[in-house]
Amino acid sequence: MPVALFVPCYIDQFYPDVAVATLELLERLGLDVVFPEAQTCCGQPMANTGCASETAPVARRMVEIFADYDAVICPSGSCTAMIRHHYAEYFTEDATQYEKVASRTFELCEYLHDVLQVERLNVRFPHRVSLHQSCHGLRELRLGGSSESMTPRVDKVREILELVEGIEWCTPERSDECCGFGGTFAVNEPDVSAAMGRDRIADHLATGSHVIASADMSCLMHLQGLIRREEQPISVMHVAQILVGRPVTRPAVPSNPSEAIR
Amino acid sequence: MKLPIVDHPTAARPFVTNPKRSPWHDKALWFVRSKRDKQAKGVSEWEHLRELASEIKTHTVANLADYLEKFEQAATNLGATVHWAADAAEHNEIVLKILRRHETLRIVKSKSMLTEECGLNHFLENNGIEVVDTDLGERIVQLRDETPSHIVLPAIHIKKEEVGETFHQHLGTEKGASDPKYLTEAARQHLRNKFLLGEVGITGVNFAIAETGGIVVCTNEGNADLGVSLPKVHIACMGIEKLIPRFQDLSVFTRLLARSATGQPITTYTSHFHGPRDPDSELHIVLVDNGRTRLRGNSEFRDSLNCIRCGACMNTCPVYRRSGGHSYHATVPGPIGSVLSPTRDAKSYKSLPYACSLCGSCTDVCPVKIPLHHQLLAWRKELVGRGLLPVSKRVSMRFASMLFQRPRLFAVAGKCGRTALRVLPHWMTHNRLNTWTIARELPSPPRESFREWYGRNRNDD
């Protein structure tokens, strides 16, 4: 029985290598992975705006698409949380398909840690890395302990990354402050969002880190947008890319119109 | 009263884009949040306490009518006079009536967010009564004719140099003085005089105990105690949600309150009032509804009545820390305020539930476990249901939904977008019309989406 790969819409369109890396990683670990091509988006932009009637049909078709798989694996904590924790209202209580999909959708690191219990990866990444914890991974999925909560929890993203050799860890002062992406928040509150992002970048830069790694590419898309605009000497990489041993992606030099045309 | 519509992004702009103000404010509050973390870590049963506090509050709110009557009975037995106010106007009238009966011209008041909510200060001043806020932070904002920007740290948005300027104007301190010790001493002298002149003391209430009829006021400055020790009349104003059932429940909350609020193990003063202090004195307790019963009837937002006003959600909120409390234009700002304010007036406060990145830090920090970020999300749904989302946003969400239901169209639209991004000059995609690009670059568009790559590389059967 194959497992399904759920690729968030923005990763599909803007960061295909994150999805390729996720696929390669799961295949290397011996899984039969299928990408159901009818999938698009989990509906989070609409849901987080409060548009329930616009979210409902999107949520229902997602569940239908993924209903027949034993596991649905997604390289995003936020989109996984949407399916696991925020779909209930779009389904009746006896919707077995929904129950099944909600309980079998996993964030990538969570799946590697809890289900596959991966212990070795044979990958090197000899760089200075700092981890950006995504809020939804942390506080919705509980992939690790949030700094506010006194409940001890295993940091699954960090533990999986620990399997990679050569990483020199850099720890930002604020271990899990929001980057300010927040989906539509990034355009609803552009000033606050950018201020939050700049503060995160400064915190990561101050550690001497060269790569900000995260299990959520949406946070990184926002941070990368600021990094490129302000030409900061730091890269962003999705955890999946590090786990398959991709080289560091240098921040493409920004705002230069010729660069955009090339 | 018709309130103007608050647009949080616009209201926040001057503060958040001020490089001297926003980062300083952020750091000051992050420091408080860090102190809170240390204190919470020191209590091994912290999460258990939160759970317990949440259950006690939920139980109390569920049985509020019974506990209120019980409290009234017990407090009356102790000699206090209990008043019931349906709304802010009634509350203010009750207070004024008591003051008139005693021919009062000057009152001293310790911190009370309820009296802020009811607009008591201006009401009394308009009726010829001098009101002196005796909490240092509140006195500072009062002298500056501002409102508190934080419920526990009312003057957190004001720098010491600005306090110096205000005190120079109003208290005659040296011009340019900014030494906190000097300024605090000046405030002490100034307030001491006011305390001596105060004819009636007004306080807020942190907890009211149904079982005993006692009320509890927590302060760090001792100003509540001093304010009610000299006058013969003490008026305590409280929202009806301040109730807890038993005396023994109090310990759960006193352990959580100060740790969550300021990172102290306990407030410097935790004062218990059981009836008037002697036969010549009066204790009036004003129980105020002002929308709370309506909120209690709302299953979606009822939990917000559990709030003990510690301010921890403000200290932790990355939006609040950077945009400042005044950007919310509400008595209670920050996450809890963004839940409460629209319950009063959804139209005026419709932007507040969106002033949130849904990071969930407030939910994890809240000592009574109010699911704040989920309530803000629920508010967004409510606002859309009431037709309060701007049409442009609704239309774009309809369009997105339509697109996401058509995978082929989605793929084509994506390809067109990426191609446009690649071939168009940079200025055409990065300008003021595209809000994303005001501060950030768009991602460099890949030639191939993942689904295209997958079709070429994996989908061979």
What does it look like?
The complex is a heterodimer of chains A (262) and B (461). Chain A is α/β, with parallel strands linked by helices. Chain A has helices spanning 9-14, 16-28, 44-49, 52-66, 77-86, 96-104, 108-115, 135-140, 156-161, 185-188, 190-206, 217-230, 239-243, 257-261, and strands at 3-5, 33-34, 72-74, 105-107, 128-132, 168-170, 211-214, 235-238. In chain A, helix 11 (190-206) packs across helix 12. Chain B has 461 residues and is α/β, with parallel strands linked by helices. Among the domains of chain B are: 43-290, 3-Layer(aba) Sandwich (Rossmann fold); 399-457, no CATH class. In chain B, 52% of the residues lie in helices and 10% in strands. Chain B has helices at residues 8-16, 22-41, 46-62, 64-77, 88-101, 113-118, 120-126, 136-143, 160-171, 180-197, 223-229, 247-262, 292-296, 312-316, 318-323, 334-344, 361-365, 372-385, 391-404, 407-423, 426-429, 436-439, 450-457, and strands at 81-85, 106-109, 130-133, 200-203, 207-209, 215-219, 233-239, 243-244, 269-273, 282-288. In chain B, strand 5 (207-209) and strand 6 (215-219) form a beta hairpin. Chain B is globular. The model of chain B has no long low-confidence stretch (mean pLDDT 96). The chains are: A alpha/beta (262), B alpha/beta (461). Chains A and B meet through helix 1, helix 2, helix 3, helix 4 and helix 8 of A and helix 1, helix 2, helix 15, helix 17 and helix 18 of B.
Whole-number tally of structural domains of chain A: 2
CATH topology of the domain at 43-290 in chain B: Rossmann fold
Write out the strand line-up for the largest beta sheet of chain B, numbering strands in chain order: 1-10-7-4-2-3
Give the structural class of chain A.
Answer: alpha/beta
Largest sheet of chain B: 6 strands, parallel
Radius of gyration of chain B from CA coordinates: 26 Å
Q: Tell me, briefly, the overall form of chain B.
A: globular
Helix content of chain B: 40-55%
Largest sheet, strands/sense/barrel of chain A:
4 strands, parallel
Put simply, the count of helices of chain A is: 14
Name the chain pair whose interface involves the most residues. Answer: A-B, 80 and 88 residues
- Give the oligomer, counting copies of the same chain as homo and different chains as hetero: heterodimer
CATH architecture of the domain at 43-290 in chain B: 3-Layer(aba) Sandwich
Distance between the termini of chain A: 44 Å
What general outline of chain A do the C-alpha atoms trace?
Answer: globular
